[in-house]
Structures are given as structure tokens and as C-alpha cells.
UniProtKB/TrEMBL annotation, chain A:
Family according to the record: Belongs to the ATG3 family.
Protein's name in the database: Autophagy-related protein 3
InterPro entries: Atg3/Atg10
Alphabetized Gene3D superfamilies for the sequence: 3.30.1460.50
């Protein structure tokens, strides 16, 4: 059944027409060309990301050497289930004003404000209470996660201490990760994720895929990945499907059916506040005459300010400005280059504990 | 002077590697037990700030291997990672895997590294991977070795507090300039400051020519440091130091820049944003040049034992389990 379904999904994506027209501001969707532009920008600005070719037949609407984006080893120090909200924390909520929003309904609620660190040690986070909703969900899926975990019995007994007779304990730091008290350093064992961003031709948005490793570098079962997805999304928007650029991998993926509308909202707000800033800079005497392309340094500042306002700072309360500009000036707002940077910020709400976003300095 | 400790590599193997190995085993290798080439990568040691406790968390010293590493035309590493070449030997039975002469294989790899020291392309981070693929049960047994040369008397650090922060030695402005001139896939490089304040880099093997006019106390060796431990540099430095000692036995002291900033901190970020470390590493006066030092480097498993690791890919390869998971 699964095979038929995935064949169908694959067929559906194949026959879907390639988006030609740029619509990222109107619909939050991007064309394959824009995906490449935004990906180039992401890999340039944040070189932890790289373009990959994949081992499957290349998709024709993308360049052969730019099939998807990869970030290796994104740390995930704690489970998303540890962020589960409790009534006691409702007092910590704060109202944040969105960038372009002036009315009350545009305010966002910041949760977990002023939250302090949990007392538990990150190494022990695996103990998720059984009555937890996510855990229960996973049990219903008949995982046998514990049964199939590699146990010591499966590994042939072939410890060979004499292999390294020359091993000088003065040379090697922290060789025994099982004895944390012997570690006088700050290294903690955390889960790590390889994150892939593909272009989904059917939904015409980027799509995130996750390949997880546990604390010992053993690949996580796809269902264990759900522990790192916020409870609102686990088993709903995060699904397990064959990875399109590999002939063999089956990975957890954030389903892109809602991406376009969310991205459209975020972009709309950012665009509005950026146009506002651009307009201001045009109205200032020196800049009004320059009809050439905006200086690159300037555009960075605009987006920086806009991003801060939209994603975190919450202190600015700029007036909403009309998006449409008729005077043919340079007020073109957000460039599509930034699409993936914004996309990563949006993803951090779905996988809050995976450090995908190294872009916080912008 | 304190003895310098090194963070050993930990392997991180993508499931794709096992998929690719299974394919190779069935279509190409069949019963052959000859070694095959594999390329792996390591990036700069990463530290993240825990959002809740505000503490720095080190990510250890990782070497990542994926299925692409078998395929020359598909291997596309990110620009700022170093590439390590290695050999994979896949055994047909678990008994052969167990009974393989690991000492001989290890010493063979170490000899290859040592021999490469006399060429223009020293293989600083060559590795060995022995595997047994249980294709029916989708279980893969594997054991990495990262041979590194260890002198009889340990390398020591001149600085009294151990590794110093690179920022305190170079300053932000110079570090930014160094970041600009880093070579692509920088595993190790020579670094010098020119008169006009810019920096230049060169491959290790150009030591004599590159540093001809440079006084010994400002010559700097840079390397991409996969370790995130503030006090111990990563495994590759052992072989870099052994190579330099082999190349220029008279220089017993090296200024080493352990580069850990694959993302240059933005201007205005906190002072501790630069993660790179610096040390002056000194060889023991008793070290004898020209003799191959002994090598260590079998990877320990998750329990800290010298034993192989196992990857169970039943959940992503076994058709029965895949069918069960399908909703």
C-alpha cells in the first residue's frame, strides 16, 4: 500500500507543471530558479549549508549539481517534548507586536518567556514520561523501538584492548564517553541531525527532511525523530516518506502543504516593513536621486531590521505601509534571496530544539 | 609545560553509506575483499549555546561519512570542510571480520601515511574502515581506525594556561582577514602575515619556500580543527605535527592556529564569539627525526571499549518493517 501511495505521490509530483512565474510575494511559492538563487545565497552566507547532487536521477527542473541543500550534524541538545507547555507557564506569556502590525490582532504571544533551565541533566532527557501524548502516539504506531535497538548481545564480543598497547592516556582527551565524570571538558553528547532542504515541485515550496543520529552516532529510527518535533506537528505535518534524491532513504519530512501560506504571511509583513525602510531612505535628500539598484550594504541593513522585527525583537511598532507602489521607484522590498533564511526561521517553530538556524546574527 | 591532549575522532556514518555499500557489495564487489576508496569529511568543531541554560555545548570531534564518499562524481563536500581519504575493507563473513589481522591492517595504513610524508601531498587524516554487512538482517558491523603518530615523549604546550583563544593572540581584525584567505577544504595550511597587513596561506609541503623570509617565531601553522573542546585540539594535529617534525626536524616549536570558526562571527556579537584556539606546541628534545613513531587510533565504541560498532538499518531498509510503518 505504501509503495503504491508513494508511487502515486511521485507521479503526482512528476506531472505537476514547473512553476515559471515568480509568485513568492503573492503566494509564498517560489520557482525552481528562485530556489537555486535562495540556496546560493544561503550557502554563501552560511557555509555550513552545501548543495548536493544526491544519488537518484537528477530532477530536471534543477541544475544537476544543485539538487538539494544539506546541513550536516545540526545539534539537538534536548527533546522537543521537554518544551511541552504547562499551565504554570502561562504567566510567562508575553504579547509581541509583529513588524507591520499596528492593531491588537497582529500581536503574537511569546511563550516560555522567562523560562529557566530545567534541573535535569541533558544526558537523561530520554526519560519521557509514559503518559505524554507524543509518546502514546508513537506507541500506537507499533514501533518496537526498544526491541530493535542494537543491544550488546547483537555485537560480536570482540573487544581487543591489546590493539592499542601504545595508547598513551596522556595523549588522548576524553576517550571514554561513558564516564562523564572523567571529562573535564564541556562536551555533551547530544542528538545530531542532517537536515536536507529539497524543492517540492508539487507545492512549489522548499521542503525539510531530517535524518537523525542518537548520542552515539547511531541513526535514529524515523519515528524517534518525532520526539524532536513540537507536539503540535508530530504525526500531523511531519510524515515519513522516501527521500526524493536518494534511491534508498526513507526520512522524516515536514509536509509542505501549509508552507506557502505561512511563508506568504511572513514575507508580506517583512516586505511591508522593508518597503517602509526603503521609502524612508529614498525620501532622505541624498538618496532620492539614486534610481540605480540599491546598494548591497543597504539592503542587508533593511532585511536585518525587518527580520529582527518579525522574528524576535518585538520592540518596534512600525506603521503598516501599502505594499503596492506605483511610482516605479526602487521600493522592491524583500528579495527572493532571503527566502530560505526566512524559511529556516519558520521551521524553528516546528523543530524547536534542532539548531538549524545559524542565522541568528542577521 | 603541560602535555597536550588530543580529541579523538568519532565517526558519524550516514545510513546512505550502508545503502551504497550494500549496492556495491551486490553489484560490484560480490565476494571480493579488496579495499575500496572512501572519502569522508570533517568540519570545524562546533559549539552551540544552549538556549535554556546559556552554556556552551561542544559537539565533539566528528568525522562524517556518507554514501556519496564512494562515488567520485557525486561527492560534493561543503566548501569549508576538510576531506579525509580512506580505505574500506568489507568482509564476507562475521568470522573473517573478527579474525582479520587488525594490527597488520592498521600498521599498513600508518605506513601509507608515513610514506606520503615524503611526497608533496601528505595524507594527514587517512583512515581505515573495516566492515561486515549482514545484508539479510540489515545490520552493519564496522570499525574505524584513524592512525595518528604519537611521539615517545608527548607534545607540550608552551602557554601556561593551555590553549589560548585565538582572538587574544591575533585580534578580531586579523582573524577576519585570515578567514578571507582560507583555502577551500582547508585541512592544514601555512600562514604568514605580509607587510601590508594581509595574510597568505600555502600547503604544508611548501614550508621551506613559504617561510624562507619569515622569522621562526612568527611562522604559523593553521588547521581546520574538528574538536570543540577548548583545551584539546582535534586528532589531525597529531599527524600535522609529526609531518612538520619529519620535514623540518630542527624546528621544535610550532605556533598552531586551531581554526574553528566556519561561520565568521558577525560584527558586534559578544567577545567570546570566536572559537578558534591558539597554542605554541613544542616537541620533546629527545625526539629523533626520521624514525616512524608508533601510531594509535582505533575508534572506541559507544561504551568506550575497543570494539566495533553496529548500525541496524532494519527500520529503513527491511521491506517488512517498512510495510509495518506505513499507515
Amino acid at each position: 500500500m505504501n509503495a503504491i501511495q508513494s508511487q502515486y505521490l511521485r507521479w503526482r509530483e512528476t506531472v505537476a507543471p514547473v512553476l515559471r512565474e515568480s509568485k513568492f510575494k503573492e503566494h509564498g511559492k517560489i520557482t525552481p530558479e528562485e530556489f537555486v538563487i535562495a540556496g546560493d545565497f544561503l550557502t554563501y552566507k552560511f557555509p555550513l549549508w552545501s548543495w548536493q547532487k544526491g544519488d537518484a536521477k537528477p530532477r530536471e527542473h534543477l541544475p544537476a549539481d544543485k539538487q538539494y541543500l544539506l546541513l550536516q550534524g545540526a545539534p539537538c541538545p534536548r527533546r522537543a517534548t521537554s518544551l511541552v507547555y504547562t499551565d504554570a507557564e502561562e504567566d510567562g506569556e508575553q504579547l509581541l507586536s509583529m513588524g507591520g502590525g499596528s492593531s491588537k490582532e497582529d500581536e503574537w504571544v511569546q511563550t516560555h518567556a522567562g523560562r529557566t533551565a530545567p534541573t535535569s541533566h541533558p544526558d537523561e532527557i530520554d526519560d519521557i514520561p509514559d503518559d505524554d501524548a507524543v509518546t502514546a502516539d508513537m506507541q500506537r504506531m507499533n514501533l518496537k523501538a526498544n526491541e530493535s535497538m542494537p543491544s550488546e548481545d547483537d555485537i560480536p564480543d570482540m573487544e581487543e584492548e591489546d590493539l592499542e598497547d601504545a595508547l598513551n592516556s596522556n595523549i588522548v582527551a576524553s576517550v571514554k564517553p561513558t564516564q562523564p565524570e572523567a571529562n573535564n571538558n564541556n562536551i555533551q553528547k547530544t542528538r545530531k541531525y542532517d537536515a536536507m532542504i529539497t524543492y517540492d515541485k508539487l507545492y512549489q515550496t522548499p521542503r525539510l527532511w531530517l535524518l537523525g543520529y542518537d548520542e552515539n552516532g547511531t541513526p535514529l529510527k524515523p519515528q524517534q525523530v518525532f520526539e524532536d518535533v513540537s507536539a503540535d506537528h508530530a504525526n500531523k505535518t511531519v510524515t515519513i516518506e522516501p527521500f526524493p534524491h536518494s534511491t534508498s532513504l526513507t526520512l522524516a519530512s515536514v509536509h509542505p502543504c501549509k508552507h506557502a501560506s505561512v511563508m506568504r504571511k511572513v514575507i508580506e509583513r517583512m516586505n511591508a516593513s522593508m518597503i517602509e525602510e526603503q521609502r524612508k531612505s529614498h525620501q532622505s535628500p541624498g538618496a532620492s536621486s539614486s534610481t540605480a539598484a540599491p546598494a548591497s550594504g543597504g539592503s542587508k541593513k533593511w532585511i536585518g531590521g525587518a527580520l529582527r522585527r518579525v522574528t524576535g525583537g518585538g520592540t518596534a511598532s512600525a506603521e503598516k505601509s501599502p505594499v503596492a507602489t506605483n511610482d516605479g521607484e526602487e521600493e522592491d522590498g524583500m528579495k527572493v534571496d532571503w527566502y530560505l533564511v526566512v524559511f529556516l526561521k519558520f521551521l524553528s517553530s516546528i523543530v524547536p530544539t534542532i539548531e538549524l538556524d545559524s542565522t541568528s546574527s542577521f | 609545560m603541560a602535555a597536550l591532549q588530543f580529541s579523538p575522532f568519532t565517526s558519524q556514518v550516514s545510513p546512505q553509506l550502508w545503502h551504497q555499500l550494500s549496492k556495491l557489495k551486490i553489484d560490484v564487489l560480490k565476494l571480493s575483499q579488496d579495499s575500496i576508496d572512501l572519502k569522508a569529511t570533517y568540519g570545524a568543531g562546533r559549539t552551540i549555546v544552549d538556549r535554556e541554560s546559556g552554556k556552551d555545548i561542544g559537539m565533539g570531534c566528528m568525522l562524517s561519512a556518507s554514501g556519496d564518499g564512494f562515488l567520485k562524481d557525486r561527492f560534493a563536500p561543503a566548501a569549508n570542510v576538510a576531506i579525509a581519504s580512506g580505505a574500506v575493507i568489507n568482509y564476507n563473513t562475521i568470522e573473517e571480520f573478527k579474525d582479520s589481522n587488525k594490527k597488520a591492517l592498521f600498521s599498513q595504513t600508518a605506513d601509507q601515511i608515513w610514506a606520503s610524508f615524503d611526497t608533496d601531498e601528505p595524507q594527514i587524516s587517512r583512515f581505515l574502515l573495516i566492515t561486515f554487512a549482514d545484508l539479510k538482517k540489515y545490520k552493519f558491523f564496522y570499525w574505524f581506525a584513524f592512525p595518528a603518530f604519537v611521539p615517545a615523549d608527548a607534545w607540550t604546550v608552551k602557554e601556561s594556561g593551555g590553549l589560548a583563544s585565538a582572538e587574544s593572540v591575533f585580534g578580531t581584525e586579523k582573524l577576519e582577514k585570515i578567514a578571507d584567505v582560507l583555502p577551500a577544504h582547508p585541512s592544514a595550511f601555512l600562514l604568514k602575515e605580509c607587510e601590508n597587513g594581509t595574510f597568505e596561506t600555502a600547503p604544508l609541503s611548501k614550508y621551506a619556500a613559504f617561510f624562507k623570509e619569515v622569522p621562526e617565531d612568527v611562522r604559523t601553522i593553521g588547521f581546520l580543527d574538528p574538536s570543540s573542546d577548548p583545551q584539546s585540539p582535534g586528532w589531525p594535529l597529531l599527524n600535522i605535527l609529526a609531518y612538520l617534525f619529519h620535514l623540518t626536524p630542527t624546528h621544535k616549536s610550532h605556533r598552531v592556529l586551531a581554526w574553528r570558526d566556519s561561520v565568521v562571527p558577525a560584527a558586534g556579537s559578544p567577545a567570546s564569539a570566536w572559537k578558534s584556539r591558539f597554542a605554541t606546541v613544542v616537541a620533546s628534545p629527545n625526539s629523533v627525526p626520521g624514525v616512524r613513531p608508533s601510531a594509535v587510533g582505533w575508534e572506541r565504541n559507544a561504551q568506550g571499549k575497543l570494539a566495533p560498532r553496529m548500525a541496524d538499518l532494519g527500520s529503513s531498509m527491511d521491506p517488512l518493517q517498512l510495510a509495518e510503518q506505513a499507515c
